[in-house]
Specification:
The protein has 16 helices and 15 strands. The protein is of the alpha/beta class. It is globular, with a radius of gyration of 21 Å. The chain starts with a strand and ends with a helix.
């Protein structure tokens, strides 16, 4: 069978989206392509975002390929599936613009939380919940009711498979093949704020997270922690370095948890490559921070969330160290890495003056500290259930979006998102 995997050209006008708006490697499509090819299928991967392709140009490539399945994600890159844009405007538009007669499939966080709404809003044929890397291949040969996470419309009604979610066997991914991907176009280096020669790339070492922070939107996909083979990841790094890549950002939900992290870092330390990632400072000590320095880590971003034990407990951080120890480790990390960042979230337990003093103390030692940002109750996150008292239904995105706009319109939104977001209905109006 012939599968076309299309990453659309993402735009976020009027959105509450606060992720990076630069193109990133579509890891979810690259891993899906690997499994599809393992199953013997023909695959065309088109990254309209990275290549700056118009719908007409993509349609031309699809016509030449003759796909039987058209697969589009509902959010840009696995890196941002846990904080996606609430609206489905871009997938709606691209499905309409491409106008294909093949079986259309949407993957991503929206369908994982609210598949009925995604079917209704987009008119897509199939929604795959959870991680689609391996289940996409099953569409060619397996009855839909046996495919984990499969949702579709049949005789005017929505039908779901018995098993609602799928999680990928990370060891089975092997070494991803970048030979047909335009790596050279990826000049962006994620979370780097200084001049840095060479190309950037994103990689995935581990998937999932053993923690259950209330605000994190990873429960319905990328939940259970799993690591890939160190040898496969290092081989990918070598292949990307041969294409001019000098910096890799790991998209892992939480880098630094697993048993193979030290082996990976020791392998990276032998290569002329810089790295960056998101993590928790309580996963590290002085010895392991020294190793990060040897492994050329130049972007070390830590979710602190709250400067009080009570605030961190409210967010279910399960943090085992004190605020003083957090400060001590962040300051030590700055002696080993050029960029160390501490992220804060707005909580009721943190006094604004105390937060300011803590920020000033860390900044005086070279650690960048964010302003406390408001939390969006993403459908599928524990915060959504805490806020609304029930699991997400098919109005969940509208409910969460309206709540967020109402609560923070007079208090200020995140300083890294659009400051005048519009309603979800306006965002999803496809013309």
């Amino acid at each position: 069978m012939r599968y076309a995997l299309v990453n659309p050209h993402w735009t976020f006008e009027g959105s509450t989206y606060f992720g990076c708006q630069e193109p990133h490697l579509p890891i979810e499509l690259l891993t899906a392509r690997a499994f599809l090819r393992q199953a013997g299928h023909d695959v065309l991967l088109i990254d309209a975002f990275m290549e700056k392709l118009s719908p007409e140009e993509v349609r031309g490539r699809l016509d030449a390929f003759g796909e039987e399945f058209l697969v589009i994600p509902t959010a840009p890159s696995y890196l941002f599936w846990r904080c996606p844009q609430p609206e489905l405007r871009v997938p709606q538009q691209w499905l309409q613009w491409l106008g294909r007669s093949s079986t259309s499939v949407l993957i991503g966080p929206h369908g994982s939380a609210t598949p009925h709404a995604v079917l209704a809003k987009t008119g897509v044929d199939v929604v795959l919940r959870g991680e689609p890397d391996q289940t996409l291949a099953m569409l060619a040969s397996t009855p839909r009711f046996l495919i984990p996470g499969c949702v579709w419309t049949e005789d005017g009604r929505v039908v779901s498979s018995a098993d609602p979610l799928a999680q990928t066997d990370m060891r089975a991914i092997g070494q991803l093949d970048y030979s047909e991907y335009p790596v050279e176009l990826h000049t962006h280096k994620h979370h780097i704020f200084t001049e840095h020669a060479g190309l950037g790339a994103e990689l995935e070492f581990a998937r999932g997270c053993p923690y259950a922070c209330t605000f994190c939107n990873k429960t319905l996909f990328r939940n259970k922690y799993r690591e890939r083979s160190v040898a496969d990841v290092l081989a990918e790094i070598d292949a990307l370095m041969a294409r001019g890549v000098t910096y890799v950002y790991f998209i892992d939900e939480i880098f630094g948890v697993g048993k193979q992290v030290r082996e990976l870092l020791e392998g990276i330390a032998l290569r002329p490559l810089s790295i960056g990632f998101q993590t928790r400072i309580d996963l590290w000590n002085e010895e392991s921070l020294d190793l990060l320095g040897r492994a050329h880590c130049i972007s070390f971003e830590c979710g602190i969330e709250s400067i009080t034990d009570e605030g961190r407990d409210e967010l279910n951080k399960n943090c085992k160290v004190t605020t003083d120890r957090i400060s001590e480790l962040l300051i030590y990390a700055k002696t080993r890495m050029p960029w160390v960042q501490a992220n804060l979230i707005k909580t009721a337990h943190d006094d604004a003056d105390e937060v300011r003093r803590w920020q000033e103390h860390l900044k005086s030692r070279g650690v960048w500290v964010s302003e406390p940002v408001p939390m969006f109750p993403f459908p599928g996150s524990p915060l959504y259930v805490e806020t609304f008292g029930a699991p997400p239904d098919e109005q969940a995105w509208e409910r969460a979006h309206a709540w967020y706009l109402d609560l923070f319109s007079g208090k200020g939104f995140s300083d890294i998102q659009h400051q005048q977001p519009v309603s979800l209905g306006e965002l999803e109006c496809v013309c």
